[in-house]
Write a structure and sequence with these properties.
The structure holds two protein chains of two kinds.
Chain A: H1 4-18, H2 20-30, H3 35-49, H4 57-71, H5 76-90, H6 99-117, H7 127-142, H8 147-165, H9 188-206
Helix pairs in contact in A: 1-3, 1-9, 2-3, 2-9, 3-4, 4-5, 5-6, 6-7, 7-8, 7-9, 8-9
Chain B: H1 11-22, E1 27-29, E2 35-38, E3 47-54, E4 71-77, H2 83-93, E5 99-104, H3 107-122, E6 127-132, H4 152-165, H5 170-183, E7 184-192, E8 210-213, E9 224-227, H6 231-243, E10 253-260, H7 266-282, E11 286-293, E12 302-310, H8 313-319, E13 323-324, E14 329-330
Parallel strand pairs in B: 3-4, 3-5, 5-6, 10-11
Antiparallel strand pairs in B: 1-2, 2-4, 7-8, 7-12, 8-9, 10-12, 13-14
Helix pairs in contact in B: 2-3, 4-5, 4-8, 6-7
Classes of the chains: A mainly alpha, B alpha/beta.
Chain lengths: ~210, ~325
C-alpha cells in the first residue's frame, strides 16, 4: 500500500495524465504545443521514483521536485521543480499537515517560482492561479474553515485566476511573443497548477 | 500525422544514436544521457556547450567538432534540456580552461542552463554564459521575455568556437561571442507550420494562400499572417525589419545566412538568397560570407529566415577559420 503522500502524487499524476491533450492544446494556441506532454512525462516519473512507503511529506515533495526538474524540461520543469522543492523544505519531517503548514508551503512555493521565473502576478503565468489560491486558502483558514474547506476556496480562486489569464496579455514565457494575440487564451501553466490543486482536494476528500 | 518514426518517446534517443553511427569520427554520446561531445574528448582549451530542444537539426549536435562546439545537449522536441543533462555535458567537456554556455533566449533554456551553471560552479568549474537574442520579429522590452534566439546562434557557435580553438581565455571567448550577439539579427517566416510528433498536428493553422510572418523556431505563431506574395517581396519585409535595427549601413561588411526551416527546398532558399544579395548590393553593403541551407530548423516547417551579421576584422577572421563538424566543414 502506498503511503498517504504517495497516494496524493498518484492522484495528481492521473489528473495531469487525463488532461495531457487538453494542456497541450492550450499550449498549441499560444505556445509551443508541449505543456501536457512534458507535465505528463514528469509526473509519471514522480510516481515511479517515489518510495511507495515514504511518509515524510517534506522529503516526498523534495524528491518530487527534483524529479520534475530532471524530467519535465522547458520552463515548467525548473518552475514546478523549484516550487515542490521549496515547499518540501518547509515541510521536512512532517507526516501530517495543519492549515498553517499548508500556508507556509504555499508561501515557499510561490517565492521559489518568483525567484526562478522572475515573474509577478498579472503576467499570464501559473502565478495567476497559485497566488489567488494561496490568498483564498489563508482567508478561509482565518474564517475558521478546515483543510478541505480552505482547499475548496483555493481551487475556486485558482479557477477564477485561469479565467483572468484569458483577459490579459502575456509578458512572460513563450506566449509573450504573441503580444495582444495572446488575449482570449487561457494560460496553460495556470491551468496545470489549478488541476494539481483540484487533484489534491479530490485526494483529501477521498482520504 | 505521417512521420518516419518508431515510438514518439524514443525519437531523441534514436536520433542521437543515429548521429553517432553516422559520425563516429566527430561525436560520441555520453552514456545514458542526451548529450553529444567531441569523439576525441575534452581538450585543453575553453569549451563551448550549447543545446536546446530537439527538432532544430543540425543544431546543435551537428556543430560539435573542431572549431565549433565541444558539447551539445538535446532536450525533448522543442523543450529545453534539464539542468542535470547540461551539467553532465559541462563536466565532460571541461578541459580546465572553463566552459562557455551558448544559450538561446527562451525562458526555459535560460533557467535550465543557469541552474546547470550553478551546479558546475559548486564543483569549481569556471562557467560563463551568453544569451543569443537575434530575432527582430519580437520586440525587445524590459517587460517581456525579450527576443528569441534563432538562426544567428550558429554564427555564435562558429565564431566563438574558432576563438576558443585559437587559445583565447574564457573571458575573451565570451567577449567575442557577445560581439557576435550585438551584431547579429534575424527574422523568419513560414509557408506551412511544423508538426510536433507528440502533439500530432500542425502547430498553427494557415489557409491555403496564407503565410505567417515573424515565426520562431518552435512552431509558435508569428507576429501576423498575410496573403502569400513573391519571395522577393517577403524577403524585403524581413530585411526591412532587420535594417530598422540601424546596425547595417553602406560600407559595412556582413555575413548572410539564408536558413531553411526544415521543409523548404534548397532551390527556394537560393532564389531568396539571390534577392538578399541584390538588396545588400543596392545599399552598398558588402557580403563577406554567405551560408545557405538548413542550419537552425523547425522540424518539417516550410519557410526560411534571413540573418545578417556585421563583421569586423576579428569576427571575419574567426568566421573564416577552419571548422570540421558533421554539419559545417571549412578548410
Amino acid at each position: 500500500m502506498p503511503s498517504e503522500i504517495v497516494k496524493y502524487f498518484i492522484i495528481i499524476g492521473s489528473k495531469i495524465s487525463e488532461n495531457k491533450d487538453f494542456l497541450t492544446e492550450l499550449d498549441r494556441e499560444i505556445g509551443d504545443s508541449d505543456h501536457g506532454i512534458n507535465m505528463a512525462r514528469g509526473f509519471k516519473a514522480v510516481t515511479e521514483k517515489l518510495d511507495p512507503e515514504i511518509t515524510d511529506i517534506g522529503a516526498a515533495l523534495k524528491k518530487a521536485g527534483m524529479t520534475l526538474l530532471s524530467t519535465v524540461g522547458g520552463a515548467s520543469g525548473p518552475l514546478y521543480g523549484t516550487a515542490f522543492m521549496e515547499a518540501g523544505k518547509v515541510l521536512m519531517g512532517k507526516t501530517s499537515l495543519t492549515p498553517a503548514d499548508v500556508e507556509s508551503a504555499f508561501a515557499a512555493a510561490i517565492a521559489g517560482i518568483q525567484k526562478r521565473g522572475k515573474a509577478v502576478r498579472g503576467e499570464k503565468t501559473m502565478l495567476d492561479a497559485i497566488i489567488p489560491a494561496s490568498e483564498a486558502f489563508s482567508r478561509k483558514v482565518s474564517e475558521g474553515s478546515d483543510l478541505a474547506g480552505a482547499l475548496e476556496g483555493a481551487c475556486e480562486s485558482a479557477r477564477e485566476g485561469v479565467e483572468y489569464t484569458k483577459t490579459i496579455i502575456a509578458t512572460k514565457g513563450r506566449a509573450s511573443y504573441l503580444g495582444e494575440r495572446s488575449i482570449g487564451h487561457q494560460d496553460p501553466g495556470a491551468t496545470s497548477a489549478t488541476l494539481m490543486l483540484e487533484a489534491v482536494l479530490e485526494a483529501l476528500k477521498g482520504a | 500525422m505521417k512521420k518516419l518514426i518508431n515510438q514518439v518517446d524514443d525519437i531523441v534517443s534514436e536520433m542521437l544514436d543515429g548521429m553517432t553511427a553516422a559520425y563516429p569520427q566527430y561525436v560520441k554520446r555520453l552514456e545514458g544521457l542526451e548529450v553529444l561531445v567531441r569523439a576525441c574528448g575534452a581538450s585543453e582549451k575553453v569549451a563551448l556547450v550549447s543545446g536546446g530542444g530537439s527538432g532544430h537539426e543540425p543544431s546543435h549536435g551537428g556543430f560539435v567538432g573542431k572549431g565549433m562546439l565541444d558539447g551539445a545537449v538535446a532536450g525533448a522536441v522543442f523543450t529545453s534540456p534539464t539542468p542535470d543533462q547540461v551539467f553532465e555535458a559541462v563536466k565532460a567537456v571541461n578541459g580546465g580552461k572553463g566552459v562557455l554556455l551558448v544559450i538561446k533566449n527562451y525562458t526555459g533554456d535560460v533557467m535550465n542552463f543557469e541552474m546547470a551553471a550553478d551546479l558546475a560552479r559548486d564543483e569549481g568549474i569556471d562557467v560563463e554564459q551568453v544569451i543569443v537574442a537575434d530575432d527582430v520579429a519580437v520586440e525587445n522590452s524590459t517587460w517581456t521575455t525579450g527576443r528569441r534566439g534563432i538562426a544567428g546562434t550558429v554564427f555564435v557557435h562558429k565564431i566563438a568556437g574558432a576563438a576558443a580553438e585559437a587559445g583565447m581565455s574564457l573571458a575573451e571567448v565570451k567577449r567575442v561571442a557577445e560581439k557576435v550577439i550585438a551584431n547579429v539579427r534575424s527574422m523568419g517566416m513560414a509557408v506551412n507550420a511544423c508538426t510536433v510528433p507528440a502533439a500530432g498536428k500542425p502547430s498553427f493553422d494557415l489557409a491555403g494562400d496564407e503565410v505567417e510572418i515573424g515565426i520562431g523556431i518552435h512552431g509558435e505563431p508569428g507576429t501576423h499572417r498575410e496573403k502569400i506574395s513573391p519571395v522577393n517581396e517577403i524577403a524585403d519585409k524581413l530585411l526591412e525589419k532587420i535594417f530598422a535595427e540601424g546596425i547595417y549601413s553602406a560600407g559595412d561588411e556582413v555575413a548572410v545566412m539564408v536558413n531553411g526551416m526544415g521543409g523548404t527546398p534548397l532551390m527556394e532558399l537560393f532564389v531568396a538568397n539571390k534577392h538578399v544579395h541584390e538588396v545588400l548590393g543596392a545599399k552598398g553593403i558588402k557580403v563577406a560570407k554567405t551560408l545557405v541551407g538548413n542550419y537552425m530548423t523547425s522540424l518539417d516547417m516550410e519557410g526560411f529566415s534571413i540573418t545578417l551579421l556585421k563583421v569586423d576584422g576579428e569576427l571575419l577572421k574567426f568566421l573564416n577559420a577552419p571548422a570540421d563538424t558533421p554539419a559545417f566543414v571549412q578548410c
